[in-house]
Amino acid sequence: MIAPRRDLHVTLCSGWIAIATVAFAVTAGALQWIRADLDAMAMPLSAYLRGPGGVWLRGAYDLMASALACLAWAGHRVTRESLRSGLASALFVVAAITLPVVGATVLYENTPSENLARLLHGVAAQTTFLCLVMGMLLLSTRWLRDARMQRNRYTGVVLAWLAFVQMWVLALWKGLPPGLTQKALIVLILLWLAWAARQLCPASAQPN
User: What is the pTM of this model?
Assistant: First the structure.
């Protein structure tokens, strides 16, 4: 029996998403320990974009943006044609565009453009979270009904719904430490991305 031929481009996308996810997690996690000047429970991840190690975190943001663009294409490619969602892909593309803006706008602190940069930073961060989480929900729900994407199929849906709930906890529950609630959401997103990367690889070997 001849083994099914893999879609090389999807396989490469899967690997890139996995690499970006690990790189982001390692970089952000390491800065929680290195930056003793910041309270990890109180400060959001964006606070680490400035100062020691900030350039590495901004690089991780850009790397993750490229991975989200890959996910937009690869996720659409491997999904059964009748279940494909252009909206999900569009949401990942928007998140890929706005995430680097989050990282770049902090560089304008203490400049004449600081107020505008701060506004853009807030809008870009909220847009990234909203588009990414909604894209996660749409794609994992479509994959739930795809006969070729049955391995650990409920894991993605559960992680996406947990991220959705956590996103609104972050937005509405102001009594909790913002650093803790934001980073909990980021962890859920990273876990979902790792799951998605794993789903893409075997799916690339199956016909649509």
Answer: 0.91
Instruction: Give the confidence band of 188 by pLDDT, cuts at 50, 70, 90.
Output: very high
Q: What is the pLDDT of residues 80-94, one digit of tens each?
A: 888 898 999 999 999
- Domains: count for the chain: 1
- The rounded Cα 90 to chain-centroid distance in angstroms is 14
> How many CB atoms sit inside 10 A of residue 24's CB?
22
Position 206 confidence tier, pLDDT thresholds 50, 70, 90 = low
Q: Does residue 206 sit within a domain?
A: no
Joined together, the tokens standing for residue 24 give: 């982001």
The mean pLDDT of 153-170, rounded to a whole number, is 95
Which amino acid, one-letter code, is at 177?
P
The reply to whether 3 falls in a domain is no
Does 159 fall in a domain? yes
Asked if the structure places residue 43 within a domain, the reply is: yes
